[in-house]
Design brief:
The complex is a heterodimer of chains A (251) and B (199). Chain A is of the alpha+beta class. Chain A is built from 5 helices and 8 strands; from the N terminus they run E-E-E-E-E-H-H-H-E-E-E-H-H. Chain A is elongated. Chain B has 199 residues and is an alpha/beta fold. Chain B folds into 2 domains: 49 residues, Helicase, Ruva Protein, domain 3; 94 residues, Dna Topoisomerase Vi A Subunit, Chain: A, domain 2 (3-Layer(aba) Sandwich). Chain B has 8 helices and 6 strands. In chain B, helix 1 crosses helix 2. The mean pLDDT of chain B is 92. Classes of the chains: A alpha+beta (251), B alpha/beta (199). At the A-B interface, helix 1 of A face helix 7 of B.
């Protein structure tokens, strides 16, 4: 057993017994952690209202060496997620971020860059920035950090350079990238993606200075392609993905 | 093999399934029921039987009721222009104990929680909209919990009710009376500042 202090985002809470909660957190230094917060639902607990979805808090957790749940002993609220008080679109983006972080990450495997990305995206969703664009960037940069960013310049099957003079390019969702004309017939789960989206995706995943303009049609197509790609990579449909607008809406 | 007679062991097991009751507490309760007069113990079992057979949800507000409508909905002394929306019957009970509100209620029987697969269709939101559409209410108070999901549920319902001529309000939040600003959490202070009202 070791006692650790770190910063965390609350991803999920399940009621346990009369006053306790089982909390799933994504932490900066410990990766994903599931811990029991004893007495968390009592009015005067050591958690002081810090345990709410998407709240960012400083935590103290006792990590168990056995299979049993870790024990959360303290949580101090750093920032509460408030988007739910003003915009359903922003709220749904927050839910999606929480679910994606939970599905993307493994217990005990820390990734400070992914944590920082999530923190920044949460601030953007909760602030005045375009939340739908922030989620697209989170997905693309997250895929890059996790090593699942699709191959867009060379054939994902044979490695040959792919730059066909086509508007739509064959894209293998399962393999994770574009296909050359020779490899295309041999693969299933192939869709045709507008080539212009590749540049936009690379720019969104790249440094902030390269932040591209997104037309309404770009958002719609990128959203649809990324949703399907993430579903295929995860092997499951995230519950909250359907809450994201398929076309850009004011929020 | 159990250390108690079969029926005592059954009782301990049943009591142990109640929330907050562990094996030791269940044993204490079972022996208490064996010690008290028989009529007192049977009164408890009769109460449990009656509550399970007679209690259902009020046809109007979804509070717990013994008849088609609950006592609060039938009470002629309640202010019928005010409607307070809560998540669970126990939230309604807490508000009633405060004695600060004399209007009607609507119990949602949960909150919208997409991460747990709970959507608006699984709550009593349609019935709430029908009630408000029926007219008569001047104010709808959103008293869902002040959590991300509670706020989201309140916002979702507020959007649905926006087309009706009712004032929609949310429970206030912020600093606890009797506390001092110096030690208040910055998020609590921000809530209090955002929700300030005219003196």
């Amino acid at each position: 057993m070791s006692t650790e202090q770190t910063e965390a985002i609350v991803l999920r809470m399940v009621e346990f017994s009369e006053t306790s909660l089982i909390v799933t957190l994504y932490t900066r230094d410990l990766g994903r952690v599931s811990a029991i917060a004893k007495g968390a639902r009592r009015p005067k607990s050591a958690f002081d209202g810090a345990l709410d979805l998407l709240a960012v808090c400083r935590i103290v957790v006792i990590c168990k060496t056995s299979d049993s749940l870790d024990l959360l002993t303290e949580a101090k609220l750093q920032r509460r997620f408030r988007a739910g008080q003003r915009s359903l679109v922003r709220l749904h983006c927050g839910y999606y971020l929480a679910e994606l972080l939970r599905l993307w990450t493994d217990a005990g495997v820390a990734s400070p860059p992914l944590y920082e990305l999530a923190l920044r995206t949460l601030a953007e969703i909760d602030g005045d920035q375009d939340a739908l664009r922030a989620i697209l960037r989170f997905e693309l940069r997250g895929l890059q950090i996790l090593g699942h960013f699709p191959a867009l310049d060379e054939c994902v099957s044979c490695g040959a350079a792919v730059d066909p003079p086509l508007v739509r390019v064959p894209f293998a969702y399962q393999l994770g990238g574009v296909l050359c004309a020779a490899c295309r017939p041999r693969h299933r789960e192939v869709g045709f993606v507008r080539k212009a989206l590749f540049g936009l995706a690379k720019q969104l995943a790249g440094p902030d200075e390269a932040d591209p303009e997104l037309a309404a049609g770009d958002y719609r197509d990128l959203r649809a392609t990324l949703s399907r790609y993430i579903q295929t990579q995860l092997g499951a449909v995230p519950r909250t993905q359907s809450l994201l607008p398929t076309a850009w809406v004011s929020h | 093999m159990s250390e108690f007679a079969g029926s005592v062991n059954d009782l301990v097991q049943q009591l142990g399934r109640l929330p907050g009751i562990g094996r030791k507490s269940a044993e204490r309760l079972a022996f208490h029921l064996l010690r008290v007069p028989k009529a007192e113990a049977l009164a408890l079992s009769e109460s449990i039987r009656r509550v399970r057979e007679n209690i259902h949800y009020c046809a109007d507000c979804f509070n717990l009721a013994e008849q088609t409508r609950c006592e609060l909905c039938l009470d002629p002394g309640r202010n019928r222009t005010l409607l307070c929306v809560v998540e669970q019957p126990r939230d309604l009970m807490s508000l009633e104990q405060s004695a600060a509100y004399r209007g009607l209620y609507h119990v949602l029987l949960g909150r919208i929680a997409p991460l747990d697969g709970i959507g608006p269709d699984q709550l009593t939101i349609d019935a709430l909209v029908d009630r408000v559409a029926g007219g008569g209410f001047q104010e709808v108070i959103m008293a869902t919990n002040p959590t991300v999901e509670g706020d989201g549920t309140a916002l979702y319902i507020s959007n649905l009710l926006a087309e009706f001529p009712v004032k929609i309000t949310r429970l206030a939040r912020g600093i606890t009376a009797g506390s001092v600003l110096e030690y208040a959490n910055k998020e609590v202070l921000a809530d209090a500042m955002t929700g300030r009202r005219q003196w």
